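Exercise 3.2. Students should predict the tertiary structure of the chain below and write it as structure tokens, then compare their answer with the key that follows.

Predict this chain's 3D structure.
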Amino acid sequence: MHSLHSRLLLTASLVLAGFLGATGLALDKAFRVSAEAAMQERLQSHIYALLAAADEDADGRMLPPQQLPEPRFAKPDSGLYAVIAADGGETLWHSGSLTGHDIDLNERQNPGERRFSRLSRAGMQLYTLAFGVAWEDNAGAESLYTYTVAEDTLVFEAEVDNFRSTLWRWLGGMALALLLAQGFILRWGLRPLRSVTADLQQVEKGHTDRLHGPYPRELSGLTSSLNSLIEHSKSVQSRYRNSLDDLAHTLKTPLAILQSSHADGSDADADRVLVREQVERMDEIISHQLQRAAVSGRATLAKPVAVGKVVQRLVRSLDKVYREKQPTVELRLDPSVTFTGDEADLMEVLGNLLDNAYKYCSSVIKVAVQVDKHSDGIEISIEDDGPGIAPEQVDGVLQRGTRMDETIPGQGIGLSMANEIITLYGGRLAFAASPLGGALLRINFGTTD
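Answer key:
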């Protein structure tokens, strides 16, 4: 089943049906046992009444009762029957209700013993109770008798059927009421999920730009993550749109120069040089815009990236690139610090900053990765013993295409690219003077995971 509401309702209904069914069977069994116990006590009371109504002759021997304690004993086919049998099994007396029936109810019992049973006799179902009696005459001699009383089960079964019918009607009514109640409760309980679905549909239609709620505490984490993903998607779209706008704008100048080169009638050699320069410039512009547009940005559900391992991997690579320079790199890395985002973005940032440190250092580079004491986030510092960056140069070096030293190869977009990525993740890039004499670059991101 694809509906969460239907699955919960079906499961709860099955559990409810099983519980009420087991309850009904247990109550039905308990009532039947109780009714049989009441039947046994009722038959015993009839035996005691017959004993009380019995008389004796002049010698003290027992005489069958003349006046019956229960009128049904005298009425034929009344459903209540009685038999008194001698010790040898011969019938001494039977009630008038047995007239016309050949029913053997003799079951010999020792004095004081009784036997309760259900029998089938002459097409009738009977509950019987046989009770043994010892009668002492005037001479002190004992005579043994067995009093047996039987009652048709029709009345008993009618009582059981009536109780059973009433029981299942009530249980059925309760089951229906509980099903309606649990259906209402489930619908009310799952209402926030339907609200989230409806709000997401509004976002898809463009009627709103986020999930506004309010939502229960159990869904707040989900809705917060969804809002972060929506914001991330919007920022990606905006970044691509802005990058395309920038690309179109920045390509206008090289294209205009190329067009004018053919219009002014300059020589072919100069044209080739001009074309090569402008093509290289356009290639640099396109590469930069594509890199900037491809930045992944903050990803709420991204896998945490160990910052220290990324630094070590980049340092090993840069050591090979700058093997002639062979600077001393001191690493102070906290292995517990992780970055929540795209690993490629982190490598782009650290790669650009470390590459600058290798380029401009004299012989020493220090890299530290630790937990930010103020925000409980990430703090990454990179410093070198190079010429450093003057405070008035900071704004300039963050501009695309600006380079501190034109004698060193480069495009002048590394710091700008790194700063854009750091800002996209809600971080901050700060410049300061290093105790080593060069530049100290400090990156601060939000909270760690």
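Discussion points: The longest strand covers residues 124-136. The chain has three domains: 4-159, 217-293, 304-447.
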